[in-house]
Design a protein that fits this description.
Elements (H helix, E strand, L loop, with lengths): L5 E6 L3 H14 L2 E8 L2 H11 L3 E4 L1 H5 L6 E4 L6 H10 L3 E4 L7 H14 L3 E3 L7 H11 L8 E9 L16 H16 L5 E9 L5 E10 L3 E8 L1 E5 L2 E4 L4 E4 L11 E5 L2 E5 L9 H11 L9 H19 L9
Parallel strand pairs: 1-2, 1-4, 2-3, 4-5, 5-6, 7-10
Antiparallel strand pairs: 7-11, 7-12, 8-9, 9-10, 12-13, 13-14, 14-15
């Protein structure tokens, strides 16, 4: 697409687009939201005006067909991700899709096949691999400062107070694992190989029929493991430890850190505390990276074709171990 402002469209009027994507797009300095699409035109018009999201379009296909849109951010319920990611890719758009990319391994494989067929760019919206904090963590691990790391312990909990929230709707593939448990799973992928097995330790089911809390273990090879806890009914908690045989890294928030969050290095009885996160909206680094790829300034990193299938396989193993009912894939 060459140089110039990247023109974004937003599929859906979800809070995450307002709270995370649009502030990051503004902070990037290289893109603008030109359109947002929703099912209800009056609601979409109000959303666009209130949040500076460009013009409002009725129906998702109208955004797919828009000729002045270079890239699309998909902020729809989980069960709609595959259908509209495929439509956007086939329309020649660059795509950033909310996580989880799909609700099953088979859906993920089908979406990635379309990426291969179209030659398009697709990212799943795990933004933390692009953060300065994760770059710094990688430097520490690569230097061997805490030795080898056989275990990661990671939590992701927060309160969902509204029982009508889509996170609590099984027909939309809601639940704690899909919403926040997927973060520790992706974090472990940055350190370990593909998972060998996954088994849940405990599951608490919501009255609506989704997993409201889950604690589980994922093993990688013979020695490496992820111990995770996730849920939708306790105060915000993302505390994470990378445990090495010569020390450990403790992250107060590896997933959406702010400037006050800490990276602690514990080794030989000494503690070093760092604050590697600048005062930027959490999505800023991935948006900047996508712009740089579009402009030919950077090679793409952490594409869905690189990372998403392993995530889908792990989540499916965990769902199966928990006894979660399958969600019918979109045809």
């Amino acid at each position: 697409m060459g140089a110039g402002t990247v023109r974004w469209g937003i599929l859906g009027t979800a809070n995450i687009a307002r709270a995370q994507f649009l502030p990051a797009l503004a902070a990037s300095g290289e893109g603008e939201a030109v359109a947002v699409a929703g099912r209800d035109l009056s609601r979409t018009e109000e959303y666009a005006q209130r949040h500076g999201a460009g013009r409002a379009l009725q129906g998702y296909q109208a955004l797919i067909d828009a000729g002045d849109v270079d890239a699309i951010y998909i902020a729809l319920p989980n069960t709609l991700h595959a259908e509209w990611t495929i439509a956007a890719l086939r329309a020649g758009k660059v795509v950033l899709c909310e996580k989880p990319l799909c609700v099953s391994v088979s859906e993920t494989e089908r979406v990635l096949q379309v990426v291969e067929e179209t030659g398009g760019y697709l990212w799943e919206a795990f933004v933390f691999p692009f953060h300065d904090q994760m770059r710094r963590t990688g430097e520490i691990l690569a230097a061997g400062d805490i030795g080898t790391v056989p275990e990661i312990q990671s939590d992701f909990h927060f309160f969902v107070r509204n029982r009508g929230n889509i996170r609590l709707r099984p027909e939309l593939a809601g639940g704690a694992l899909n919403d926040v448990g997927c973060y520790p799973v992706r974090l472990a992928q940055l350190t370990f190989a593909d998972p060998a097995s996954a088994g849940t330790v405990t599951v608490k089911w919501a009255p609506e029929g989704v997993d409201e809390e889950m604690q589980g273990i994922v093993t990688y090879g013979t020695d490496d493991r992820l111990l995770f806890s996730c849920g939708l009914q306790r105060p915000y908690d993302t505390y994470t430890r990378l445990l090495g045989n010569e020390g450990e890294i403790r992250l107060s928030n590896p997933y959406h850190p702010g400037p006050s969050d800490t990276l602690e290095i514990h080794r030989s009885g000494r503690v070093t505390i760092e604050h590697p996160t600048p005062d930027l909206p959490s999505f800023t680094r991935i948006v900047q990276h996508i712009h740089a790829v579009i402009h030919g300034e950077e090679a793409p990193r952490h594409l869905a074709t690189d990372d998403s299938l392993a995530t889908a396989r792990t989540l499916e193993m965990l769902h199966r171990a928990a006894g979660s009912p399958p969600v019918e894939p979109v045809q």
